Amino acid sequence: MGNILNQKDISDECARNVVMAAMDKAVEIGCKMDIAVVDAGANLKAFFRMEGAWLGSIDIAIKKAKTARYFDMPTGEIGKLSQPGGPLYNIEHSNEGLISFPGGVPLKDKDGTIVGAIGVSGSTVEDDHTVAMAGVQALLG
């Protein structure tokens, strides 16, 4: 009999806490954001669109979260690797479209196991990443 793969997943409560922490940070820095959390399988688990957040950022936030989970690294790091001549050049065209700029970050539990990812869009990529990291920190407590 083969080995059984055990997969941890983000709980409903944790996904809500991640979104709330990200929203709080967005309010603190004066941004209107779309915030997505995906589970360990990269399926949408939680989403919130702040009043006035760009409609176009809905898809971007979800794709940032999925991209971060698909490759288990921040989307900004994927962006660095996907520049012309880089080892991942044109990767953003795979998987029905990826986002390779900052704002997507894997979510890890206290043991370091990836349980999902957060994606944030609605401002500069620096603000998007800052808000996403607030969500990450909420999960770690």
What average pLDDT do the residues reach?
Answer: 93
Class based on secondary structure composition and strand pairing: alpha+beta
Number of helices: 4
What do we call the CATH homologous superfamily?
Haem-degrading domain
CATH topology: Beta-Lactamase
Structural summary, described in words:
The chain has 141 residues and is of the alpha+beta class. The protein has a single domain (12-140), classed as Beta-Lactamase. The chain is 40% helix and 18% strand. The chain contains 4 helices and 4 strands; from the N terminus they run αββααββα. The chain has helices spanning 12-29, 56-71, 75-81, 125-140, and strands at 34-39, 44-49, 104-108, 114-121. It has a 4-stranded antiparallel beta sheet. Helix 1 packs across helix 4 (125-140). The protein is globular and about 40 Å long. 45% of the residues are buried. The mean pLDDT is 93.
